[in-house]
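Side project, low priority. Logging it here so it doesn't get lost.
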Amino acid sequence: MYQPITRIFDGKTFYQIPGFVDYWISADDEVISDKGRTHYLKVHFGYHGYYRVHLQHSDHKTFPNLHRLKIMAMITGPLRFDQKVDHIDGNPRNNCLENLQVLDNTENMRKCPFTVLTEADATQIWDLLRLTSLSAREIGEAYGVSGGTIEAIRYGRSWNSVTGLASAKRIHRPEAQRKTTLRKKAKAAAIRQKSAWLRRDLQIGSHSQQMLPAKPLVRPVHASQEARHR
């Protein structure tokens, strides 16, 4: 039976997140860090509609979903990779404990079936990718799928029979995006050229300094001063 570890900070009860000993989460979805001075962390609204937070795990950073951290810290302890935390009412912003449950992959997919694209859909998406400047996220929202599904079509990881692409091969970008890329390349080339000119000028300057005659150690006497001395 998992026994949560708690502490009081700023008059609120926080629960230690399993696997992240320096991080704590409250029932109000607030996260604090003990790294350095104890402080609150910013919670972000993620790409797929879930709240997320940046954490440091050993030698790398991670960006886990807040509802998964919450149920681990307060109820279940560490979860396996194949265990998913589901929102019972289907609202990804409702992170109340009463609205969270742990399901395995099969149960989670049965509860929330994903949209299956047809060949006609894939053909239309491929045309949108090639002929328009719409983002993967915008196209995905129109077809009820994620932006990652659209990116898989873009780079040939799925629907190769429609796109004719090998896996991970990029397509020609729309005209507007291609112009932006050309501008960036031209700017980078100009910077490289200026750097080359600067290096050349520095080399010429140092060479000129070496060719200059050495300055005399004794200050030369003017002719009028020499006449006075005589």
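Brief comment: The longest strand covers residues 20-26.
Revisit when time allows.
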